[in-house]
Amino acid sequence: MRTAAARARANIALIKYWGKADKSLNLPATGSISMTLSSLQTTTRVTFDTKFDRDEVSLNSSQAPEGVRQRISRFLSLVRSMAGIDLFGQVDSHNNFPTAAGLASSASGYAALAVSASRAAGLDLSRSDLSQLARQGSGSAPRSLIGGFVELGIWDGRGTQRCSLDQIASTKHWDIRLVIAVCGQHEKKISSGSGMERSRLTSDFYEQWIKTHNRDLDTARQAVKEKDISRLGPVVESSCFKMHAVALSSQPPLLYWNPITVAAMQKVWSLRETGLEGYVTIDAGPQVKVLCEAKNSKAIAEQLEAIPGVEKVFNEQPGSGVELLQ
Ligand code: PMV
Q1: 322-to-44, 75, 116, 139 alpha-carbon distances in Å
Q2: Structural domain spans, the chain
Q3: Cα angle for residues 68, 178, 235 (degrees, 5° grid)
Q4: Pick the CATH number of 1-326 from 3.30.450.40, 3.30.230.10, 2.60.40.2550, 3.40.50.300
Q5: Residues framing ligand 1 (Cβ under 6 A)
Q6: Quick check: pTM over 0.70?
Q7: Whose Cα sits closest to atom 9 in ligand 1?
Q8: Helix, strand or coil for residue 185?
Q9: Which H/E stretch holds residue 74?
Q10: Contact 317/148 with Cβ under 8 angstroms?
C-alpha cells in the first residue's frame, strides 16, 4: 500500500483565463494572474493498493458521482503512466467550502490531487512537472500550487507543450483582501471547460478577448508589484466583465449570475462612490469576489452580508501554496 495526503487553497483569477488553445492537453489560450486564498481549502489523501479493483473516489465523505469518479480516474491514469505502476487508487477529498459553484474548488482540488497522487505513486515531481500534471485536471489548478500572487502563462510554441508558472509576489507582499459573497450554492449547469469551448467556437467577441489580454496582464502584474489598488482594481473588473461578455455572447448564451450576484455587484459600486474602494470579480458561478485593501474589508463584508440572499461571506487574504501532509 502507498499513501500520501496534500492540502491546497483555492485561488481566484484577477485576470481571467477563458478559452483553450488545445483541448486534449488543456492548454490555456490566455495567461492569467491570481491570488491564492488563505482559508478555502481542499485536503486530499490518495492510496494505491492491490486490494482495489477500480479507482474509488469519496468527496466530502460521500461517494462521488460516476462522472466525477471517471474524470478523477483518468487523472490517476496519467499519474500511473508517469510512475510506471498499475495499481488502482482510493481518493478521499474534503473541501471546506461549496463545491463547483464558482469558488475554484477544481483548482484547489486538482492541485491537492496532483501532489498527493504523484507522491503516493512514488514520484517526486518538480514544480513545473506538477504544474503540467495539475493543468490536465483543471486549467486554473497550477496556480494553487504556489502562494501569494501567481501568473500562469501560455505555451510559447517551443519544445514540449508547457506553460510557465511564476510567483509575481509572495504571500506577505501586500495585505490585500478578496471578500467573497456566496450568492448561491447550486452546482453550475455548464462547467467552465464546456462554457469556454462554446465561447471559443461561437462568440464574436472571443478574438478581441484574446487580442487585448496581454495588455491587461501587463497592467495587473505591474499594479501588484507596486501595491496599487486603484490601478489593479479597474483592470480586474474589466477582465471579469470582458470574460462574461464573451460568455454572454456565446450561442446559446452563458449566464453564470443570479439576481443576488447583480445586487452584490451594484452594492460594491455604490460603496465605491462613497469612498469605500472595492472591485468586483466573478468566475463561472454566481459568487461575487471583491478586491479591496485590508482596512476596508470588514466594512465591505458587513455590507455584503446585509444583502438578502447572500448566504455567507468569506474575508480572504493572500494564502500559501500546496503542502504535503504527514
Ligand atoms: O480551471 P477551469 O479550467 O475550470 O477554469 C476556470 C476559469 C475561470 O475560473 C472562470 C477563470 C480563471 O482563470 O480561474
Answers
A1: 11, 18, 10, 16
A2: 1-326
A3: 100
A4: 3.30.230.10
A5: 13, 16-18, 32, 106-107, 138-140, 192-193, 283-284
A6: yes
A7: 283
A8: coil
A9: helix 66-83
A10: no
Q: Which of 295, 298, 176, 235 is nearest to 32 (CA)?
A: 235
pLDDT digits (tens, 9 = 90+) for 20-67: 999 888 999 999 999 999 999 999 999 999 999 999 999 999 999 999
CA of 216 to the centre of ligand 1 (A): 17
For residue 100, the model assigns a pLDDT of 55
Q: Which atom of ligand 1 is nearest to the CA of 284?
A: 10
| Amino acid letter, 175 | D
Distance 195 CA to ligand 1 centre (A): 10
Which candidate, 3, 2, 7, places its Cα nearest to that of 112?
7
282 CB contacts (<8 Å, ≥6 apart)?
102, 240, 244, 256, 257, 261, 265, 288, 289
Do you know the residue count of the chain? 326
